[in-house]
Amino acid sequence: MPVEAPSAEKLLDMYARMWRIRLFEEQAEYQSSQGKVMGALHTYIGEEGVAVPACAHLQDTDYITSTHRGHGHCIAKGADISRMMAELFGRSTGYCKGKGGSMHIADFQVGMLGANGIVAGGFGIATGAGLAAQLRGSGQVAVCFFGDGAANRGPFHENINIGAVWKLPVVYVCENNQFAQWTPQKDVTLVTDIANMSPAYGIPGVQVDGMDPLAVYEAAGEAIARARRGEGPTLLECKTYRFHGHNFGDPQQYRTREEIAEWSDNRDPIKQLAAHMRDAGILSDEQDADIQNTVQEEITAAVRFAESSPYPTPDELYKDVYSYDIG
Ligand SMILES: Cc1ncc(C[n+]2csc(CCOP(=O)(O)OP(=O)(O)O)c2C)c(N)n1
């Protein structure tokens, strides 16, 4: 069944969300350079054209799982950027009361089941959420975002296999940004296209240009609708590229400036969506400026919220943790 093209309203919402990710992370990198952010920071800048159009098909009651590069997934699914920023700042008003940092942000209210510092850690959670939805007969769907590096770990195989056998309502979305940390995909994987692994599990494999938000919207829409109909998982591979280092401070010796510029100058998903909306008469210069200004104000407010929030007190140290050594 063909996926209906997104309405003007939906496109404007997607566009604002993509800017929210971009500006949130630019600000987070700046705050990190000022020593305000606790812990590691992995940015999603350049990959906004994957999470946003995919999540545009989901309700708050649907689930996603994320990765160590999780801000984009959180924002795409509707998490609160003030609580996110506070978490990065290590403040008690953050999503994990300031004790988790960037890689542990979750918001169950909007179906965001968590960023994850364990590469491939989201597979079991998404597959389990899909199983729960199937048992409840609720029509919910789980989308599992993961990187090309994660595709070389056991949980990829184990979960896609059982998800396929049980026809679970899960969509496995590979964000193939061509590197696992500093390792080019071709050095560790002979199969160029992760989507081509799908026949091993007997499910559809679909590959799409992850820099083209409309192409992702269509492909993800089809896969999510299929999952909702009870027909089982799809392995959707989105070819994409991260514009910044693996983490903040990465000197990026494994790729050239020219390569980065080629992607960021010519294939930026935000520019591509803007161009499409302009051609369609949906986005004027004025509206564009309004959207960016509004999002910038939200980010400024988020920083103010984080900065004015208290740090957790020492008696919080052992609360909300699974185990600790008292010996
Ligand atoms: C189980 C595990 N092994 C190794 C690491 C260290 N590590 C952190 S990110 C990363 C690369 C992940 O690559 P990919 O899945 O392609 O995601 P990307 O960083 O490209 O978004 C590695 C190896 C880890 N966090 N967890």
Q: How does this structure look, described?
A:
The chain is 43% helix and 9% strand. By secondary structure, the chain is an alpha/beta fold. It has a single domain (8-308), classed as Rossmann fold. The longest helix has 26 residues, at 8-33. The chain is globular and about 50 Å long. It starts with 7 loop residues before the first helix and ends in a 19-residue tail after the last helix. The mean pLDDT is 97. Residues 67-69, 117-119, 147-150, 177, 179-181, 246 line the site of thiamine diphosphate (TPP).
Topology record:
Elements lengths: L7 H26 L14 H8 L7 E3 L5 H6 L4 H8 L33 H15 L5 E6 L6 H12 L4 E7 L2 E2 L2 E2 H4 L16 E5 L3 H16 L5 E6 L17 H10 L2 H11 L5 H24 L19
Parallel strand pairs: 1-2, 2-3, 3-7, 6-7
Antiparallel strand pairs: 4-5
Helix pairs in contact: 1-2, 1-10, 1-11, 2-8, 4-11, 5-6
The structure holds thiamine diphosphate.
Number of E-state strands: 7
- Number of helical elements: 11
Query: How is the CATH topology named?
Result: Rossmann fold
Categorize the overall geometry.
globular
The strands making up the biggest β-sheet line up spatially as 1-2-3-7-6
Mean of all residue-level pLDDT scores: 97
* CATH-scheme architecture: 3-Layer(aba) Sandwich
Rg estimate, integer Å: 19 Å
Bound small molecules, by name, code or SMILES, are: thiamine diphosphate
Tell me about the largest β-sheet: 5 strands, parallel
SSE order, one letter for each helix or strand: HHEHHHEHEEEHEHEHHH
Number of domains: 1
Quaternary structure: single chain
What structural class do you assign from the helix and strand content? Answer: alpha/beta
The top level CATH class name: Alpha Beta
Portion in strands: 5-15%
Cα distance spanning the termini: 60 Å
Uncertain parts: none
CATH superfamily annotation: Thiamin diphosphate (ThDP)-binding fold, Pyr/PP domains
The percent range for helix content is 40-55%
